[in-house]
Design brief:
Blueprint: H1 7-23, H2 25-34, H3 39-55, H4 64-68, H5 75-92, H6 96-118
């Protein structure tokens, strides 16, 4: 098994991960039914997001947190998201970059969760 080396590898990770997300009961509902995500648009954007994190390509310049505030996300959904992300990474890759994306996914997921808590998103 190799490490994440290039864009092709990131594409494989992103496509496999969101394949699982789409089939997950809660996450699939949020992406497909609630948000009606256009996968042909979302997947390349997520490849850009991770390629920027791993290889500083400068291809993603968005502000992702604000896209999540209208979504009906519950605290436990972050755990499902992160579990699927690590499971997929471990299935496909081994190495420093694989460890790094999991570490960043954990940090960002936890930062989103804290911000949502502070914004009162989980009340009621
Ligand atoms: C429960 C967890 C999560 C759910 C349900 C979720 C759901 C979504 C949905 C539905 C969108 C599309 C929004 C739109 O286009 O209007 C989106 C966009 C995005 N998400 Fe998440 N997300 C979650 C966690 C995360 C985490 C932890 C990260 C980062 C590691 C992340 C990164 C992004 C990025 C970069 C975008 C694109 C934003 C843009 O359009 O610039 N998401 N997410």
């Amino acid at each position: 098994m190799t490490d994440i080396r290039n864009d092709e590898d990131i594409k494989k990770l992103v496509h496999t991960f969101y394949g699982k997300v789409a089939e997950h009961e809660r996450l699939g509902y949020i992406f497909n039914d609630f948000a009606g995500v256009d996968w042909d648009h979302h997947l390349p954007k997520m490849v850009d997001f991770w390629s920027n994190i791993l290889f500083q390509t400068g291809r993603y310049e968005g502000r992702p947190y604000r896209k999540h505030t209208p979504l009906p996300i519950k605290p436990e959904d972050f755990k499902s998201w992160y579990d699927l992300f690590t499971e997929t990474t471990d299935e496909l890759f081994r190495g420093e970059n694989a460890e790094y994306v999991k570490e960043m996914a954990a940090k960002i997921a936890s930062a989103f969760q804290v911000r949502m808590e502070m914004d009162g998103k989980f009340e009621g």
